[in-house]
Design a protein that fits this description.
Layout: H1 2-29, H2 33-39, H3 43-65, H4 73-97, H5 101-108, E1 117-118, E2 125-126, E3 131-133, E4 138-140, E5 145-147, E6 152-154, H6 159-183, H7 190-197
Antiparallel strand pairs: 1-2, 3-4, 5-6
Helix pairs in contact: 1-3, 2-3, 3-6, 4-5
């Protein structure tokens, strides 16, 4: 299982890099605005595009290599200690204020009246919004989803990098489509168009 998961992660990362670099190379090899800006010395345009691609790679690799917020056995103690602390504070308040037993139970329960849950797979106590990822085999804090492109889960610690990666990728895609659109040679027949614009 671990070897298969590792191979999938390496393949997805290689595939993403291969596609992105391949498209950038095509834009630099064909007669496009990007190629003309490089060869004519208009470095600002090319630097902005290539810089954005580089920033996209940084966000991609940070989001894919950072721990998404896996729950560990060490963190279990802090969850249980904080729960017991709230429970003790609720009991001391009830003695001082003369609250009923029902009020003590509500005060002692985890936030928003929810109860502590244990994962059915790894038996760890899960905080709110934590979920077990069957692909990774671990519980993840603030679990969003398992992303096959990243090869890991999107959770508490890598969520912002994932969104920054998506934003930069969308800008790169739109900019590349703009470059491609204005690089196309328009012909009357599809055959001539394909011969003029094809590989």
């Amino acid at each position: 299982m671990a070897a298969k998961h590792w191979q999938e992660r390496v393949f997805s990362r290689f595939f993403h890099v291969f596609i992105t670099v391949g498209i950038v190379l095509i834009l630099l090899l064909k007669d496009t605005e990007l190629k003309r800006s490089v060869f004519e010395g208009h470095w600002i345009y090319a630097s902005l595009f290539l810089g954005l691609v580089f920033v996209g790679f940084i966000f991609y690799f940070v989001a894919s290599f950072i721990d998404p917020g896996y729950l560990e056995v060490k963190s279990q103690n802090s969850i249980l200690i904080s729960y017991e602390k709230v429970e003790a504070e609720a009991e001391s308040q009830s003695e001082e204020e003369g609250n009923t037993e029902e009020t003590c139970t509500i005060l002692a329960s985890p936030p928003f009246g929810s109860r502590l849950r244990r994962c059915g797979y790894c038996s760890l106590v899960q905080p709110l919004r934590a979920k077990h990822c069957e692909d990774c085999g671990k519980c993840v804090r603030r679990y969003d989803h398992h992303c096959p492109w990243l090869g890991t889960c999107v959770g508490e610690r890598n969520h912002k990098f994932f969104w920054c990666f998506l934003l930069t990728q969308n800008i790169i895609i739109l900019w590349a489509l703009y470059i491609i659109w204005f690089a196309m040679i328009h012909k009357k027949s599809w055959y001539d168009w394909f011969l003029s614009n094809g590989p």
